[in-house]
Write a structure and sequence with these properties.
Layout (H helix, E strand, L loop, with lengths): L1 H17 L7 H8 L3 H8 L2 H25 L5 H18 L1 H8 L16 H18 L5 H20 L5 H15 L9
């Protein structure tokens, strides 16, 4: 039931954005999505299962955007990394669900761990994408180094999503420079 699944995820996302996730029951989500509670339970199992599905959909959206940014720089992978980090931070700053999730840390929400202590699926998918990109452009680099750089870039980007301390362009420049240095590659400042 892909149509129903997406409708439920969209309805749950609206609830998160409205700041009501902590007090929401599965029946509330079912009513908003126009499905039965049984359908909701059959599709997601629990409220936590629905939260994980929302997080997976959000991750997929970000990964498509990141891949698009990387693909725009086939001849300059460091510029691709810079663009991907900038996209992630800028899109994250504008994303109402991410904002609601981060601000809900003061409330009763159980969504923040999906970005922190339970972020393994998001981190793994991101690492797979970035590792493949780096291996494609620099197949001669040691796999261990590629994985270490990919993992570090992702964790630092997520850290800046959670607690931004500088404009996205500045952070993107810094992380691209870090990747270039760690992989012993030439880097160029952003244009």
């Amino acid at each position: 039931m892909p149509g129903v699944r997406q409708r439920v995820i969209d309805a749950a996302r609206e609830i998160v954005i409205a700041g009501d996730w902590g007090s929401t029951r599965m029946g509330d989500v079912a009513a908003r999505a126009g499905v039965s509670r049984q359908t909701l339970y059959n599709e997601f199992g629990t409220k936590d299962g629905l939260a994980v599905a929302m997080s997976a959909a959000q991750t997929e959206w970000f990964l498509r955007g990141i891949q698009g940014e990387l693909d725009q720089h086939p001849d300059d992978p460091i510029a691709g990394i810079r663009a991907a980090v900038n996209f992630t931070l800028a899109a994250g700053a504008d994303d109402p669900m991410l904002k609601a999730t981060l601000s809900s840390a003061r409330g009763t929400s159980d969504l923040l761990p999906l970005l922190t202590t339970r972020a393994e699926p998001m981190l793994t998918a991101s690492r797979t994408l970035l590792t493949a990109y780096l291996n494609e452009h620099w197949p001669e680099l040691p796999h261990r180094d590629v994985v270490l750089v990919a993992e570090s870039l992702i964790r630092l980007t997520v850290s800046h999503l959670v607690l931004p301390l500088a404009p996205s362009e500045t952070v993107a420049d810094q992380l691209a420079e870090l990747a270039a240095r760690a992989l012993h590659l030439p880097s160029h400042p952003s244009q």
